[in-house]
Design a protein that fits this description.
The structure holds two protein chains of two kinds.
Chain A (H helix, E strand, L loop, with lengths): L2 E3 L4 E5 L4 E3 L2 E3 L5 E7 L5 E7 L5 E3 L5 E5 L4 E6 L8 E8 L7 E3 L3 E6 L1
Parallel strand pairs in A: 2-12
Antiparallel strand pairs in A: 1-4, 3-9, 5-6, 5-10, 7-8, 8-9, 10-11, 10-12
Chain B lengths: L3 E4 L2 E4 L5 E7 L5 E7 L5 E7 L6 E2 L10 E5 L2 E6 L8 E9 L2 E4 L3 E5 L1
Parallel strand pairs in B: 2-11
Antiparallel strand pairs in B: 1-3, 3-8, 4-5, 4-9, 5-6, 7-8, 9-10, 9-11
The chains are: A mainly beta, B mainly beta.
Amino acid sequence: AQSVAQPEDQVNVAEGNPLTVKCTYSVSGNPYLFWYVQYPNRGLQFLLKYITGDNLVKGSYGFEAEFNKSQTSFHLKKPSALVSDSALYFCAVRDVSNDYKLSFGAGTTVTVRA
Amino acid sequence: SAVISQKPSRDICQRGTSLTIQCQVDSQVTMMFWYRQQPGQSLTLIATANQGSEATYESGFVIDKFPISRPNLTFSTLTVSNMSPEDSSIYLCSGRSGYEQYFGPGTRLTVT
């Protein structure tokens, strides 16, 4: 069975500081990994994905994520956070052994203070 | 990328009634899904909407309670039947194209 863990319910950072949102996964085969962001009263917006290739993936709004196979992690990062990055972030994994369905983490609420 | 719209965006319904949510995708997608989300919490997959055939439901969800249709590649409906307050939630439509999966803005349902 596949699963995703986001160990932090909340992350608080000051504007201009680096932002990291952690994600670890468990799958039986090769993982397809995704990050989504959800702003209040909005649907999920796709940020980035890892399918294969370079371990460092660049996505929308200046976000990037690093795939680490040995640590089974896919942490989301942004070098300099903005107040407008305050939102709910979801990590998700898709695994061929589960009919390619997306499994979501519990979500991490990011608050960036001015 | 695909843009997904849902109608209605929100509704307040009385227990025992039914609500049908519509989902429209602006381009063809290979797969469509329906999720449920409590505000501020994670997403739970209800079912995969199959074109021209019965939807595939996840454990804990049944067709009598959540009938789903998908008459073509860009449109699907989810009905929440015989509603109770426990059905109060956000219902999200999703479409997959290639490796990427897109989500609608959600329908916020409150059952009184």
